[in-house]
Amino acid sequence: MQHYNFGSIEQFRSICKQIKMEAEYQGKDADGNAIYDLNAPKPVLTFTGTVKLHGTNAAVVYSKEHGLYAQSRERVLSIESDNAGFAFYVESNREYFENKFAQIMTDDYDTVVIYGEWAGGNIQKGVGICNVPKKFYPFLMKYFKGDELFLQEIPYGGNDGWCANSSIGIHPITKFDNFKMDIDFNHPELVQNELIRITEEVEHECPVAKAFGHSGIGEGVVWTADWNGKQYRFKVKGEKHSSSKVKTLASVDTDKIESCQKFAEYAVTESRFEQALQAVFPDGNLDVKQIGVLLKWMNTDIIKEEMDTLVANNLEFKEVAKYIADATKKMFFEHSKL
Questions:
Q1: Are 220 and 236 in contact (CB under 8 A)?
Q2: What per-residue string of b and e applies to 33-43 under the rule 16 or more CB within 10 Å gives b?
Q3: Nearest to 117 by CA among 225, 204, 195, 9
Q4: Which of the four pLDDT bands, split at 50, 70 and 90, describes residue 159?
């Protein structure tokens, strides 16, 4: 029996980097080298947030070759080699699962995997969901043709969603409180405060435990969106569930960010940029490999000429450097196309 790896849920910063690269990627040149347009606009994507439960990753697998079986994040499970009783749970409800899988199997794919969190009871400690008996909370379904991913979707949590069956403890995570957020990946840092607010709200009172009449802390939120044929997922955990400070989002000063953006618009003028081009590329041949030299020239000139403006706006140069670099790169690639 084959194990179908779920993979990992990324951090917010990783998703920002991935989407930035995806937006900038323009294909390959004649030599097979990747071509990127750093000036390409980044998308605004609507993410759906669902409660992240503190349990153990589990999946129900049905393949035309091997039939029904259970797996954990790392391995295929059996009654003899179980994980928190999940294989026993699947086997105890074999007839239900086999009937349901039979209804959705087609010739387009040969394996369906329902991933979820097996949570509650004694699986973990110190969270609200521990007060609820063990249940299975599906959050993703994947359809495979051989080893190739054919389709993936989030299980619907309504009464007509076939994954939902309260009598045997199947509760798709979309059945509970979920959230919506538009993220502009041109300036993704602007949503960090709202991400933190929602995460703290869930950590203070787990919506899933509360739905079952119990009070206690939650773990965090998983955010999901589809774009360009790919599914992007990231997690935000509360302080009490983060294994390191690096994995928690820092709050941002949105007024400061706006001030930095306005300063860059003020300082990175066409006139200053043209002077930089003449100084760095006197022959007029723009070389992307020298963009670091160009940025250094811009920084030096802005510090020399605009220090009083920085002081007047209570801005340190290190705070505005990123925005100056972004504006300069944008101008550079616009000129490169002329």
A1: yes
A2: eeebeeeeebb
A3: 9
A4: low
Name 122's Cβ contacts closer than 8 Å, sequence gap at least 6.
Answer: 130
Please tell me the distance from the alpha carbon of residue 26 to that of residue 3, in angstroms, as a whole number.
35
Distances (CA, A) of 97 to 100, 113, 225: 5, 11, 28
| pLDDT at residue 251, as a whole number | 66
How far is Cα 335 from Cα 338, in angstroms, rounded to an integer? 5
Residue 232: partners with Cβ closer than 8 Å, 6 or more residues away = 10, 15, 18, 19, 45, 224, 225, 226
Strand partners of residue 83: none
Q: How would you label 55-68 residue by residue, b for 16+ Cβ within 10 Å and e otherwise? A: bebbbbbbbeeeeb
Q: Are 298 and 268 in contact (CB under 8 A)?
A: yes
**Could you tell me which residues are beta bridge partners of residue 180?**
48
Q: Measure Cα distances from 101 to 114, 157, 160, 310, 336 in Å.
A: 10, 17, 15, 63, 55
Crossing angle of helices 291-312 and 317-336, rounded to 10°: 140
Strand-strand pairing, 220-227 and 44-52: antiparallel
Dihedral, CA atoms, 311, 316, 320, 325, nearest 10 degrees? 110
pLDDT digits (tens, 9 = 90+) for 14-65: 999 999 999 988 888 888 888 888 778 899 999 999 999 999 999 999 999 9
